[in-house]
Batch of 2 targets.
Target 1
Amino acid sequence: LAESRRPVNAPHFPRFRVVRWFGLATALGILAVSASRGAGNEPAATVKFRVFSLRPVSNLAFRSAPEAAPEPLEFHPTARSRVYATPAGGPISFVESDSGRVVAEVPAPSTAGEMLVIFRPKAGGSSFRADYEVTVIEEAANRHAAGQLAVLNLSSLHLRGQWNGRTVEVNPGWQSLER
């Protein structure tokens, strides 16, 4: 009888295997749950934008999705507006605040960024039905180097002026001027 007893310090193999496999399964389960939680916590990319118009604009709002509630826009006569934000990837619809009619739409970039949306009334539009042409300008901080001036000529004219003590010609569209 004494010979059939196992030593006190010898592991009991079936119980030892069960505990080891249970511990391994628990650790894998915890890792899987924490990995799935980490994947869903990434913030969605956001596009930030400002609006501007040379002419007064009122009664305008934007929607970041068709089912989203319109958020009113505030235009300033001599400056860009405050910053508005919308999820990246979908179109940004500009609507009349009272009727919800879409007056302009721009695609939002698929990645985060900043842009300026310039509104111009469409040629031939009536005072009762305001539709707008929009120009979207990327406003990334690194778009232009220090000492550069970005000029957007919205006319079809070739303009000439003085900058930094020299004569410069500004063609229609975007142009960067260097010192």
Target 2
Amino acid sequence: IRGYQWIHLFTTMSQSHHEDPHGTTRELIADYLRRCGYKADCSARNVELRSVVAQKMHSLKSGNSVEVVDKALDAGCNIAESAYGHTSHDHQYYIALYTAILICVDDTGDRQLEALEQFTSRFSRGEKQLSPALDALVDLLRQAYSLFTVFGSDAIIAGTLEVVTAMHVEFTTKHLEIKP
């Protein structure tokens, strides 16, 4: 497709998606993949995995809407099923739940700044977290060594501490003016 054809395609799609700002992007990507001959390697949905992850996520009583939890649950399970379908049920459960919890925390972090700020210090002291989702995340981190190598578990834990700290920084500095 030539440059002017992309411009025409983009402007045509932009006009038809004024209600949905992401619709144009979705259509451009879908069109590109179609033209490349890409065929998705769809993984089968693991109904059992989704059931146990959903039960755990809904039991957290995190105050998140059902829609937020279900969106995070679906994303976590999709990743576990597609990228880690070759691993055991326990590994897939860990990955799906870990991912879903972090998505929920990221989606609602601006309403739980103190919980994010204190996550690392409470984790290091073995104290209860200020959020049910973060308590569940800590429980998962403690289980890492039973599923993964020492190096893998260390990386999961260190990365988690960093990402939760980064979320706190993101939410507390998003209104600051950037000065060169």
